[in-house]
Amino acid sequence: MRQWALKFGQNFANQIRRRLPLAGDKWHLDEVVISIAGRKHWLWRAVDQHGIVLDILVQSRRDAKAAKRLLRKLLKKQGIAPRVMITDKLASSGATKRAIRGW
């Protein structure tokens, strides 16, 4: 099974991505605390204005570095920067917005 996934998995992933609708230019970034094995983790999520989930990231910390990691992952996957980025106005989100200018 593993060999099959290594051989054909990337092709399937590329075909699925091509069929997905294009993401909008307004992104909503949000984070929520979750408990995994009794430890606190943060679930970061990015959604466009049409409700399409762009990306999800789970991390054990909630700081500017974690927010930048989500943004780097999003920009790499989407290929374009958003026109508008709506956040919950936390300090980590502000660092994310500043980082997008340098991309």
Automatic annotation (TrEMBL):
<feature type="domain" description="DDE">
    <location>
        <begin position="25"/>
        <end position="93"/>
    </location>
</feature>
<dbReference type="Pfam" id="PF13610">
    <property type="entry name" value="DDE_Tnp_IS240"/>
</dbReference>
<dbReference type="InterPro" id="IPR032874">
    <property type="entry name" value="DDE_dom"/>
</dbReference>
<dbReference type="InterPro" id="IPR052183">
    <property type="entry name" value="IS_Transposase"/>
</dbReference>
<protein>
    <submittedName>
        <fullName>Transposase</fullName>
    </submittedName>
</protein>
